[in-house]
Amino acid sequence: MEQSAPSASRYSTPYHDLGDDAGPRIPNWAEHRSVYRGAGQTTYIVETEHFDRAAKRDLSHLAQHGWHVTVERASGRQARTRVGLVRRPSGRPANRTRA
To answer: pLDDT tens digits, residue range 25-40?
Structure first.
């Protein structure tokens, strides 16, 4: 049986994709959020000190629903994890990269 790639959500932000019909959801782990627009795409950057199981679950969900997810984990005592989210063009397979 052939499986098709998940379709991109009708919503334009990752927070809508994490939410439900009641509205978008900004997860607790998404402490510092920035949005950059340009070159025909929007990039969402999240920096967090709480990269936990919930964050991994949410990012997996986003990767399966049309988002290119990058994760950069810093080391050190007060290390922050930086997450980049960009909407993938329709029909492209999920891709997660880690630094």
So the answer is: 999 999 999 999 988 8
Amino acid at 76: G
User: Under DSSP, is residue 86 helix (H, G, I), strand (E, B) or coil?
Assistant: strand
Alpha-carbon gap, residue 25 to 20, rounded angstroms: 8
Residue 7 lies inside a defined structural domain of this protein:
no
CA dist 76 and 80 (Å) reads 9
Asked, for residue 83, whether it belongs to a domain, the answer is yes
> What's the pTM?
0.76
With respect to residue 34, please indicate whether it lies within any of the assigned structural domains.
Answer: yes
pLDDT at 1: 44
Q: Average pLDDT over the chain, rounded to whole?
A: 83
Domain that holds residue 67: 14-98
1 lies in a domain?
no
